[in-house]
Structure formats: structure tokens, C-alpha cells
Amino acid sequence: MLRKFVLAMTFAAGLCFVGSHAMAQDATDYTKEEQKCEASMGKSLSKEVQRISKCVAKCLKAQRAAAVPDYSTCLALTPTDPCITDLTKGPKAKAQVSIGKKCDPGLGKDCPACFPASTVPLGPISCSTGQPMPDRTEGLTLATGQSFYCIEAGALTPTPEEAKCEDRATKEAVKFVGALTKCTDKCTKNAQAGKIAYDACAPANGAPGVAPSDVPTQECITKATDKFADKINGVCFGAAKPACYPMNPEDLITLTFTIVQNEGQYIFCGSPSGAFLD
Fold this sequence. Notes:
The protein has helices at about 5-15, 30-65, 70-75, 80-85, 90-105, 135-150, 150-155, 160-190, 215-235, 250-265. The protein is an all-alpha fold and about 280 residues long. The chain has one domain (about 5-265).
């Protein structure tokens, strides 16, 4: 029943993001422009998630109405849908261009020292494209999508009520990704400005853990989490909840939160003088 949920967790773990910490940089060399680059990457990757989700939703809508649906074309971990794979207009391609505009030294931008020194698997991080982060974002989004669209991932067609639950849960998950990124961006911006401690934005800035100690950031995350939970619980109950969903649909929130927070350690990697490094 929970096979797709477990698959997403396993895929994420396979990308080696859980419990590790990205290479950090010296606080004295962490500039405002470098934080802006990190913020741009976070925003660009959030938009990549949104665009991929829209592609998948459009594909699924068409297949649900087909005489003989083929959901594998929508949910494959190696995508074939041109909406996703287009080399110039696809979500990943757009993310790479957007990141480069704010981070590429070749364009006169200030790239964080922790990007070329990053310990991210298949890295380090490119200042001109953000890779491998766009690749990781695509893989995690598609794998997690199999948990949210678990009926179609099992080659079945949902009832209208189940489809409404899946669609709403996915839509809210995408919003949650963006909200969490904004929470971390604001926290690291305050840390860079010296308003709060550099280790207050965990897992950003090289700090251990997945939850920040900064109270306003905690409140920001709580607000986003509560909104996500209310939306899921409002539409995914009784017969509307797919049997392949976790017993508690809010486990999908935990899945999304864990992925976003741990990817954040690589995106927002500035920290004080080598502290908090593994």
C-alpha cells in the first residue's frame, strides 16, 4: 500500500541528502551578493518544481480521459514528456538559466565560495548553471510525484474524488516547497546581515539538524505546514483518500519537508569560519 511513498523516500536517500551537511564558507567572505545568488537558486529550483508539477498534472489529466491510459508516460523517473525534457523551455533548462543570471562570475555575479567546494553528490555546484541541483530537483520531484499520484503510479485510474485529493495535495505540496524556501531565504538574509546567529537557520549555513532555531523562521515554517495540513485534511478524507496514501496523509508533509530542508543545506551553504562542518 505504501510502496510509492517508500519509493520516494528511498530515491531521496539514494541522492544522499539525509543527515549530511554541505561544505560551508567563511563568514567573513559571505557577501550580500552571494546570499542573493543562493536565494536565486532556491527560488529557481522552487519554480522548477512548480513547472514539472504542471507538466505532470497536464499529462495525467489527458491520460485519465484516455480510452486506454498510459500513466507511465507522465510519472517515469526518467522523463520522456517534452514538457519536462525540452532543452530550452523545459523546467530544468529554465532553472539553469535563471541561476546563472544571479550566480555566474562570467556575468559579473558573486558566486558563494561554498558552491565550487560543495560536497553535494555529483557536484560540486556550478556557478553558471547550478548543476547538479536542477538535476536533483527534477529527480526528487518526479519520485515524490509517484507518492502523491500513487494510484496512477500503480497503473490505475482514480475516482473523481481520489483524483481531486491527489491534485489538491500535489498543488499544496508545491506551494509548501516555495514557502519553505522563502522561510530559509529570509533567515539566511538576516544571518548574513548579522541580525541573527549564522547557525540559527539549520540546515542552512552548515548548521546541523533540519529545523532552524530562529523563532521567526520556526513560525514561518509552522504557518506553511499548518496551511498544507488543512488543505490535505480538507479534501483527502474517507473515500477520497487513495488507499495507497499513508494512513495519515500528513506523512506526505513530512516527506516534502524532509526533502526541502535537506536540499537547503546545499543551496544556502554560507556559514561562519568553517564551523558546523562534518
